[in-house]
Amino acid sequence: MENASSSGNPLPELSDNLAGIVERVGRGVVAVHGRHRIPSSGVIWRNGVVVTAAHTLKREDGIEVTLSDGRTVAAVLAGRDTGTDVAVLKLDGVELDRVESGDARLLKAGHLVLAVARADGFSVSADFGVIGSAGGPWRTWRGGQLDALVQLDGGLRPGFSGAALADMRGQVMGICTSALARGAGMVVPAITVERVTDELLAKGRVSRGYLGVGTQQVILSDTWIKKLNLTSNRGLLVNSLAQGGPAERAGVLVGDVLIELDGAPCRGMDDLYTALGSGSIGQSLKIALIRGGERTECSVTVGERPQRNSCR
């Protein structure tokens, strides 16, 4: 009888390779019991450290993790970052090997990938698919910065948020989440997970700058553009102010239109988030704005964004 290779059928070999990747990566994937009913998944990122999707944790105490050997152990929440949807758990006294990570920035649309989860709390589960779209650095709607935009070709099954996303070499490119794009699974790249994990382990939170303004993008009139010699036809209308926040203390008013931040155009939220990186906290930010049809300027001392669900 001919074997698979001699008959020219590559599918059995491919099937065995996929199963081998799931088995190998699955040893570093855990079930995270931080909500009612279905657990989420998590990945052993470092010895004694598990990363998971932050939105799946509905409590801060009483979290448990089921390991690949069937043991269920207590976990301590070191911190979470809603901007990137990464949470870090610490497992005391548990010696485990970390997964082998790769560079998600090398992924392209059409690449074959495997999501490896422990969705039922015990056995490993897998979902086979392709990368739907890929691109450069991407700012999430929650203000977090991902080092690459990697979107799956469909949504995630229940329990697959926090799962490992592996390429065909078995390297973990990041963790999966359903919280950053409506109706589609996204990947938090490994390089982003590493950066956020460092900060959460060090201080329990990810620091971001804060002005205390609610804004919406507006199109500026041709009259204003000519009168004020503007380089962009877009700005941010201030529609609310946090009481006692940095912007209110600096004299910003509801109805002002932000047009420049430290001399750079303020055309939308991406420009605002760029100006409010962690290095901006405590620094003076020069703001140009339109008030009553005239250009005016003020300086704001950037604060630190208040932490919701902070753990330390």
From TrEMBL:
<keyword id="KW-0378">Hydrolase</keyword>
<dbReference type="InterPro" id="IPR043504">
    <property type="entry name" value="Peptidase_S1_PA_chymotrypsin"/>
</dbReference>
<dbReference type="Pfam" id="PF13365">
    <property type="entry name" value="Trypsin_2"/>
</dbReference>
<dbReference type="InterPro" id="IPR001940">
    <property type="entry name" value="Peptidase_S1C"/>
</dbReference>
<dbReference type="InterPro" id="IPR051201">
    <property type="entry name" value="Chloro_Bact_Ser_Proteases"/>
</dbReference>
<protein>
    <submittedName>
        <fullName>Serine protease HtrA</fullName>
    </submittedName>
</protein>
<dbReference type="InterPro" id="IPR001478">
    <property type="entry name" value="PDZ"/>
</dbReference>
<dbReference type="GO" id="GO:0006508">
    <property type="term" value="P:proteolysis"/>
</dbReference>
<dbReference type="InterPro" id="IPR009003">
    <property type="entry name" value="Peptidase_S1_PA"/>
</dbReference>
<keyword id="KW-0645">Protease</keyword>
<dbReference type="Pfam" id="PF13180">
    <property type="entry name" value="PDZ_2"/>
</dbReference>
<dbReference type="GO" id="GO:0004252">
    <property type="term" value="F:serine-type endopeptidase activity"/>
</dbReference>
<comment type="similarity">
    <text>Belongs to the peptidase S1C family.</text>
</comment>
<feature type="domain" description="PDZ">
    <location>
        <begin position="228"/>
        <end position="269"/>
    </location>
</feature>
<dbReference type="InterPro" id="IPR036034">
    <property type="entry name" value="PDZ_sf"/>
</dbReference>
